[in-house]
């Protein structure tokens, strides 16, 4: 089979990129198309795969990729498919699904979310902007929204990364979607990766991921400025320098780290703090795979991955705070510290194992087979892996 995989951008290596890597296990000869491709960050993960990028992919524009959103349609339209493919798979939270099709190849869209700029979270982005630029940004978001609407029917089958996103697809696109949860590397579900020290003996709370406005890391800084507890924040992003400037000495920013270094921080953490309303969120599961609990904002994808059972914390993977406020988060941290010794690392890891990449592979295979209507071709391909 000739397969094309269209991914919104390869700038950093996060959840969406890990989905693409799993898809490449099925289709090792697939061509990859992307608006932006940062070789320094992503080539090591993609190996020898051919990546075809858009006219926007130069060093200057790539460094400002989140700010040049009105140019996304230009970029996606510049990427002409270079072959007649049997299957198109788009990995979507940008305009990837808008790729111009050159034949009747079926198109499956694995959707991480309808573009947050346009649907449901526009004001969150506008709040962080210079007031002078806000009117122009709003016009840009509205333009991008109209473009996104025009590409909804470019897809034959939507597969959402969560029930949360499935509901958004129905609400905003009026399309039905299946649900296949993203892949968590099965190799981290080992006894060697399971924490052994008591939570009370661990040194700090942990946050890691992109430091962008909707991740709400600002709430963590405000809370830990007030309570004086130790917090380590791993990651980089547009909000990092601003938050460093306001953080007290008990809060430490590491910047981006390799996985082995992240793992060391996980193993010594009391809990992961997950303060944003995520589409799904793979980070909590990657932490739970080590037996470490999660304190999460009680909205979005975290509701599908974190288990809270106050009556039996030994059968919980964490706690939720209900309001995005210092008071709400601090109250839950205090509750957590009262019951922290009751959490079971083994139970937490076993729960996270349900989201392993082998489960993803089994379920996404069925979705592709259903779309293709030709199980024999796909079975032959995946059976050789």
Structure description:
The protein is an alpha/beta fold. The chain has helices at residues 15-26, 39-46, 59-63, 72-78, 122-127, 134-150, 163-173, 217-227, 240-246, 259-267, 283-288, 326-339, 345-352, 357-372, 375-383, and strands spanning 3-10, 31-37, 51-53, 87-92, 107-111, 157-160, 177-179, 204-208, 231-234, 251-255, 269-274, 294-297, 318-321. It folds into two domains: 3-183 and 356-380, Rossmann fold (3-Layer(aba) Sandwich); 186-354, Rossmann fold (3-Layer(aba) Sandwich), CATH 3.40.50.2000. Strands 3-2-1-4-5-6-7 form a seven-stranded parallel beta sheet, sandwiched between helices. Strands 10-9-8-11-12-13 form a six-stranded parallel beta sheet, sandwiched between helices. Helix 8 (217-227) links the parallel strand 8 (204-208) and strand 9. The protein starts with a strand and ends with a helix.
From the structure above, extract its key features.
7-stranded parallel sheet; alpha/beta; 385 residues; 15 helices; Rossmann fold; 6-stranded parallel sheet
What would you report as the Rg, rounded to the nearest angstrom?
21 Å
Q: In which order are the strands of the major sheet placed?
A: 3-2-1-4-5-6-7
Q: How do the SSEs run, as a string of H and E?
A: EHEHEHHEEHHEHEEHEHEHEHEEHHHH
What value does the average pLDDT take? 92
Shape: globular
CATH architecture heading of the largest domain: 3-Layer(aba) Sandwich
SS element count, helices: 15
Largest beta-sheet characterization:
7 strands, parallel
- The fold-level CATH name of the largest domain is Rossmann fold
Strand-pairing-aware structural class = alpha/beta
- How many angstroms separate the termini? 15 Å
Question: Class of the largest domain, according to the CATH hierarchy?
Answer: Alpha Beta
Tell me what portion of residues adopts beta-strand conformation: 15-25%
Whole-number count of domains:
2
Estimated helix fraction: 25-40%
Uncertain residue ranges: 374-385
């Amino acid at each position: 089979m000739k397969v094309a995989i269209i991914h919104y951008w390869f700038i950093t290596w996060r959840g969406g990129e890990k989905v693409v890597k799993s898809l490449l296990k099925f289709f090792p000869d697939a061509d990859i198309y992307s608006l932006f491709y940062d070789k320094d960050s992503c080539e090591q993960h993609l190996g020898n795969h051919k990546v075809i990028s858009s006219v926007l992919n130069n060093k200057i524009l790539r460094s400002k990729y989140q700010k040049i959103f009105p140019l996304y349609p230009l970029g996606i339209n510049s990427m002409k498919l270079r072959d007649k493919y049997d299957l198109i798979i788009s990995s979507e939270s940008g305009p990837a699904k808008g790729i111009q099709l050159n034949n009747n190849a079926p198109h499956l869209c694995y959707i991480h979310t309808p573009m947050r700029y346009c649907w449901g979270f526009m004001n969150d982005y506008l709040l962080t902007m210079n007031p002078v630029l806000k009117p122009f940004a709003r016009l840009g978001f509205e333009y991008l929204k109209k473009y996104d609407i025009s590409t909804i029917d470019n897809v034959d089958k939507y597969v959402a990364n969560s029930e949360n996103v499935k509901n958004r697809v129905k609400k905003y696109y009026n399309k039905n979607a299946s649900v296949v949860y993203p892949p968590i590397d099965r190799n981290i579900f080992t006894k060697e990766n399971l924490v052994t020290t008591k939570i009370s003996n661990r040194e700090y709370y942990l946050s890691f991921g992109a430091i962008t406005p909707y991740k709400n890391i600002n709430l963590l800084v405000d809370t830990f400025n007030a309570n004086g507890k130790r917090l380590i924040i791993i990651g980089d992003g547009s909000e990092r320098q601003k938050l460093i400037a306001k953080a007290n000495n008990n809060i430490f920013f590491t910047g981006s780290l390799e996985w082995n270094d992240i793992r060391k921080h996980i193993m010594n953490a009391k809990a992961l703090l997950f303060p944003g309303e995520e589409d799904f969120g793979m980070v909590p599961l990657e932490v739970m795979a080590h037996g470490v609990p999660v304190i999460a904002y009680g909205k979005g994808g975290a509701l599908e991955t974190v288990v809270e059972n106050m009556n039996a914390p030994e059968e919980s993977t964490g706690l939720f705070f209900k309001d995005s406020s210092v008071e709400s988060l601090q109250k839950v941290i205090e509750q957590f510290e009262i019951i922290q010794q009751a959490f079971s690392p083994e139970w937490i890891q076993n729960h996270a194992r349900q989201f392993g990449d082998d489960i993803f592979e089994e379920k996404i295979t069925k979705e592709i087979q259903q779309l293709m209507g030709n199980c024999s071709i796909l079975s032959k391909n995946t059976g050789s892996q």
